[in-house]
């Protein structure tokens, strides 16, 4: 074991006092303390610096130095000539409208763009503590209606766009948000059901949660895409995107139920007794006393569940719904651009990363807040 | 509630209690009734639709010829075999990815988790970046990325060869292998017996050390039981341990062990993605151990590696095991993403079956059955392990 654990007792002494006088001295002190504290640490640092330098040089050479930024039309000959040696970033300006919005009518693409911004604003509002409460439910309902109007159109002079033309980032956001919006109430009911005194209700909830959590999401999506139509009466046909949304709501409900159940367990029994003593009914007791406390306890894990859920929406690729990942994969089917998938995947990774990273930062911020309180 | 109450009040209380009981009963009847009604309605629709579309029901199709090619299989399989055989091949393929993935992800994740706590600034930063990047990008995207990189490798002719006998090309990773015959299995069995004997012996040695405080080394016994004894069996039976080096013939490799690009990409994606989560679990587990434990061990003059291995990690394990179990379950369930790169795991084979026979309900029911069984198996094993290492309270 060459690892040195970062505990106060083991931390090497700070740089000697004579080093602290100048900037250079301070940085030498820092280097000594953090990179070259012992022989093993020095060896690790040198190896890492060597490896990092090589990787960075390779990356800069591929991504910047040898890269091609623009081509005219589909003339990708120059790009293909340097394939493997340099990146062809020209694919991004060429394809980004398709990757972001799919086959949505080109002149109407301001609508999905605006819908995406609305989603971002909704997430931002939801992260403000001052907005938590009943107000937020109204805001979410209003925003979902607004997004529906924007995407479908058909009123206010917006031409109608059917759901099979939707694609890209808005579809990813719709899947994640609507899954959460419907899965959350479902999760609350199921979490309460799992802690219910009534055995039949409790076992139904346990069955639901364990069944959904025990199988891969893909099998649920297959179910939504091929099995669900079999279960409907003749003539009733539900759109594929909507079916996937139902599957996501059921999936999110099961996972959120477990998180909320953890919160319910953290509420002291005295709270139940006090609410009972006031003569509150079951629903009033839970809605006004227990749930607000329970959900308050589990907001960081709820955010983490949402991150996982956001990433999981990419699985709709397998059942052929045009979310962000599917449009990215489709955009490089075009023969002229076929061999530049790495560039496109990197671009899409960046979008996913931006969403997930900001959420995980936020969750960590909440955890730190909870700890300091 | 044992507060003494006057007679009339008590009667009212009892009445309200039974009212509560009746309302509870009514609720249950209503919920179960609705559930049964909905399921029954869906079921009758399904029966109607299936007969209208001339789709047969039941599992009779399992005995019919599958006619589906499976490229990457450890079991003997041909498209003429029945569906049940194809399903078994799929289950083996799922387990092959899941088990190896769990082992590798645990090793890598533990390493990264410990590296994140290193006093070396560069190492801990790098580990943090690794965790952050891998956690915040969808696994499916990472899988497609690895697969594309795999396809971009040179052709078999100009394969990249880091060491003799190891080739990396767009045909996958080819490694030297040892052909396993009956004799080899005997030797492996002998080694397993040796391992069990060593385990029993070690417990006795520790018990004796507890009694008299004298330390007895285990390694000479290990040498005899794990090396000497199998070697003796091997020599006695005259078993050959030839190494088969892969060889390039035409456009492909012959001999050796080939990890197909689909399998290799899936394995890398699952291992790296899950290891990022495991790293976080290991880090928080180690940090959950009281700092005083480090100080106390240091005061006793113990070596740092020794402290980590024998004092901190065993205590951290108690915090680590439950979330680790859910990561193992996640990895197993995520292995179903194989269908996106064309590795034929159980989900992919069930999906093909579904397309060929139209029997969606049966195919999906089989997927669920397989995963529920695997999940249950992992949960039971981890619960057993957790109970074994749990803190023995006084």
Put the structure in a nutshell.
The complex is a heterodimer of chains A (373) and B (394). Chain A is mainly alpha-helical. Chain A has helices at 23-34, 39-65, 77-81, 91-101, 110-127, 134-152, 169-194, 199-214, 217-227, 240-266, 269-277, 282-297, 299-312, 324-331, 341-372.
Description:
The complex is a heterodimer of chains A (373) and B (394). Chain A is mainly alpha-helical. Chain A folds into two domains: 17-65, no CATH class; 91-372, MetI-like fold (Orthogonal Bundle), CATH 1.10.3720.10. Chain A is 67% helix and 0% strand. Chain A is built from 15 helices and no strands. In chain A, helix 9 (217-227) packs antiparallel against helix 10, helix 10 (240-266) packs across helix 12 (282-297) and helix 10 runs antiparallel to helix 13 (299-312). The longest helix of chain A is centred in the last third of the chain and has 32 residues, at 341-372. Chain A is globular. The model of chain A has no long low-confidence stretch (mean pLDDT 80). Chain B has 394 residues and is mainly α. In chain B, strands 1-2-5 form a three-stranded antiparallel β-sheet. Chain B has a two-stranded antiparallel ribbon with strand order 3-4. Chain B folds into three domains: 30-62, no CATH class; 83-152 and 263-389, MetI-like (MetI-like fold); 180-241. Chain B is built from eleven helices and five strands, in the order H-H-H-H-E-E-H-H-E-E-E-H-H-H-H-H. Chain B has helices at residues 7-52, 83-116, 121-135, 139-151, 182-212, 219-237, 261-288, 291-299, 304-334, 346-357, 360-389, and strands at residues 167-169, 172-175, 247-249, 252-254, 257-259. In chain B, a hairpin with a 2-residue loop joins strand 3 and strand 4. Chains A and B meet through helix 2, helix 8, helix 9, helix 13 and helix 15 of A and helix 1, helix 3, helix 4, helix 8 and helix 9 of B.
């Amino acid at each position: 074991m060459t690892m040195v654990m970062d505990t106060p007792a083991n931390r090497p002494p700070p740089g000697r006092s004579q080093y602290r006088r100048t900037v250079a001295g301070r940085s030498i002190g820092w280097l000594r303390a953090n990179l070259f504290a012992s022989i093993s640490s020095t060896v690790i640092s040198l190896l890492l610096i060597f490896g990092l330098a090589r990787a960075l040089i390779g990356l800069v050479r591929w991504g910047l130095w040898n890269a091609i930024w623009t081509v005219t039309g589909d003339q990708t000959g120059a790009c293909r000539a340097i394939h493997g040696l340099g990146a062809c970033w020209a694919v991004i300006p060429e394809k980004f409208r398709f990757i972001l919005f799919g086959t949505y009518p080109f002149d109407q693409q301001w609508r999905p763009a605006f819908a995406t911004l609305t989603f971002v604003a909704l997430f931002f509002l939801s992260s403000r503590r001052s907005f938590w409460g009943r107000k937020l439910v109204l805001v979410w309902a209003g925003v979902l209606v607004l997004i529906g109007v924007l995407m479908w159109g058909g009123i206010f002079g917006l031409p109608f766009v059917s759901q099979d033309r939707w694609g890209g980032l808005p579809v990813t956001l719709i899947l994640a948000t609507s899954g959460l919006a419907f899965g959350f109430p479902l999760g609350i009911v199921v979490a309460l059901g799992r802690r219910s005194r009534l055995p039949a209700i409790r076992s139904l909830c346990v069955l639901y949660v364990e069944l959904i959590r025990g199988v891969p999401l893909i099998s649920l999506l297959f179910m939504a895409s091929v099995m669900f139509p079999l279960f409907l009466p003749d003539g009733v046909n539900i759109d594929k995107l909507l079916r996937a949304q139902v599957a996501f709501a059921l999936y999110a409900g099961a996972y959120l139920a477990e998180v909320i159940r953890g919160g319910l367990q953290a509420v002291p029994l005295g709270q139940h007794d006090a609410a009972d003593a006031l003569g509150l009914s079951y629903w009033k007791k839970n809605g006004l006393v227990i749930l607000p406390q329970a959900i308050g306890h589990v907001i960081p894990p709820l955010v983490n569940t949402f991150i996982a859920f956001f990433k999981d929406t990419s699985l709709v690729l397998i059942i052929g719904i045009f979310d962000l990942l599917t449009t990215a994969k489709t955009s490089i089917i075009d023969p002229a651009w076929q061999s530049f998938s790495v560039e496109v995947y990197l671009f899409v990774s960046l979008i996913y990363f931006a969403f997930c990273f900001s959420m995980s930062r936020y969750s960590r911020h909440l955890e730190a807040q909870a700890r300091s309180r | 509630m044992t507060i003494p109450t006057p007679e009339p009040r008590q009667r009212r209380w009892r009445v309200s209690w039974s009212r509560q009981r009746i309302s509870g009963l009514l609720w249950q009847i209503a919920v179960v009734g609705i559930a049964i009604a909905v399921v029954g309605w869906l079921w009758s629709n399904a029966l109607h639709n299936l007969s209208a579309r001339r789709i047969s029901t039941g599992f009779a199709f399992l005995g019919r010829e599958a006619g589906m090619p499976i490229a990457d299989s450890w079991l003997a399989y041909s498209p003429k075999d029945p569906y049940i055989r194809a399903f078994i091949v799929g289950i083996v393929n799922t387990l092959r990815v899941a088990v190896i993935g769990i082992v590798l992800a645990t090793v890598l994740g533990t390493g990264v988790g410990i590296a994140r706590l290193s006093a070396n600034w560069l190492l801990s930063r790098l580990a943090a970046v690794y965790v952050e990047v891998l956690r915040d990008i969808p696994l499916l995207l990472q899988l497609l990325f690895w697969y594309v990189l795999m396809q971009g490798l040179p052709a078999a002719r100009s394969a990249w060869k880091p060491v003799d006998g190891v080739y990396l090309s767009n045909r996958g990773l080819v490694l030297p292998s040892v052909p396993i015959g009956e004799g080899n299995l005997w030797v492996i069995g002998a080694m397993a017996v040796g391992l069990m004997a060593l385990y029993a012996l070690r417990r006795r040695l520790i018990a004796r050390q507890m009694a008299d405080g004298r330390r007895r080394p285990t390694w000479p016994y290990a040498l005899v039981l794990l090396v000497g004894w199998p070697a003796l069996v091997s020599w006695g039976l005259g078993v050959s341990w030839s190494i088969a080096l892969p060889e390039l013939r035409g456009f492909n490799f012959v001999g050796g062990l080939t990890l197909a690009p689909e399998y290799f990409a899936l394995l890398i994606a699952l291992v790296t993605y899950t290891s990022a989560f495991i790293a976080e679990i290991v880090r928080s587990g180690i940090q959950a151990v009281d700092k005083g434990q480090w100080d106390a061990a240091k005061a006793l003059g113990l070596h740092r590696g020794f402290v980590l291995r024998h004092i901190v990690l065993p205590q951290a394990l108690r915090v680590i095991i439950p979330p680790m179990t859910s990561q193992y379950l996640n990895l197993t369930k995520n292995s179903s993403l194989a269908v996106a790169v064309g590795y034929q795991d159980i989900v992919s084979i069930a999906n093909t079956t579904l397309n060929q026979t139209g029997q969606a309900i049966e195919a999906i029911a089989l997927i669920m059955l397989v995963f529920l069984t695997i999940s249950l198996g992992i949960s039971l094993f981890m619960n057993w392990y957790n109970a074994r290492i749990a803190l023995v309270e006084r």
